[in-house]
Specification:
Immunoglobulin-like, five-stranded mixed β-sheet, 3 helices, 40 strands, mainly beta
Length: 418
Amino acid sequence: MNLKARFSLIGLGMILFLITTPLLVLYARGFKFDYKTGTITKTGAMVVKTDPDKAEIYLDGALVGQSPSNIRFLLPKDYEVEIKKDGYQTWSKRLNVASQFVTWVNSFREYIALFLSEPKLTENFITNAYSVSKNGNEIVFLQNDQYKLLNTKNGEVSNLGSNENVSFPEIGTANLQWTNADKVFESLQVNHSAAVLSLIKQARYLESNGEQMIILTSTNELYQYNLSTFSLIDNHVITASLAFDGIWYLQNQILKHKEFGSSSIRIVASDLPPFTTATIDRVNNKIFIVLDQTLYVLNDKLETIYTPVTYTNWDEAAGRLVFGNVNEIQIYNPTEKNIDLILRALEPIGNVQLNNETGYVFYSQKDNIFAIELDGRNRRNIFQIADNLGTNPYFKVAENGKIISVFDSESAKFYTIR
């Protein structure tokens, strides 16, 4: 090779170096050539995490990897994202990837929960009665004259004891709201006085945490009973609630509060609007009141949230209030004081409950159970969790979102759903 040829090769190498080096630097810094626009564009990225993992990730129909995955150098635009795994229902959503930003497919969550295509029946108990605790954390059901306790947080079942020892009133047959099943069961085995039993028979509402009981009679008298003594609290009471910090009740248009161990009664609010029906929920240092299907929250003053409301359900893990009516599911954030409409449907909705672990709200329609996701970007995925369960089945989802228990008049069935 002569000298001229050598200089030509060196020159060509330098030209290639000068051309490719900036391109490599630009690529390393996240730039990419967009053939549609004919320009060099700063790219974005997408992070995908699922439970279970090793799910296939598709962008605009093309397989790009398995979860968990950090997909880099994506041109900024909208992508049709699909996540598929054998034996599981497909998750999909149209998401935007912006220049120099990371799009998290599992927005504000550790992972995207994937649900089984078919639930797996794991246990089947024969039962003819069941009762759900006020906060939904426990379910007591009767099997062969034995009371069983289901911890809905972890799905574990334990024995409480025989119903032969229960003096009053039997769980599942009385108008009794309760929390703390073990202590309540112990209290039901106590030999109560004739005066207390007489009050129980007159009760239109009972509530107990195993240490304290409130009794609201058919003549609107409110009694407090601590399993040794009972006392009259007030007359002309419309509704009452037993909370962690005492007894809350409505008398005419006045909200009152009586602390445990105190004889004094405090007026909390006296400017309530006229009403004929009412419920009180004292949760997380908040007071929620439903008056004639209008939901209020008591802050410095009584504030209207929404109407019509036929159910409320406080979720402790999420710090949110789920509420709605037969056609709506909504969530109220007391910190930000905003409402998120989750679902509006023509078919009647029942048994609504938020599962914070998965990021889904579960509900029943006819004989089916569905889950709709909280993430409202583009569209909310709705999955059918179980079907053909009988008319309006009662169910409860475990806190981890993996087990669902379904109750009817004959059985208690436990399913694995993810």
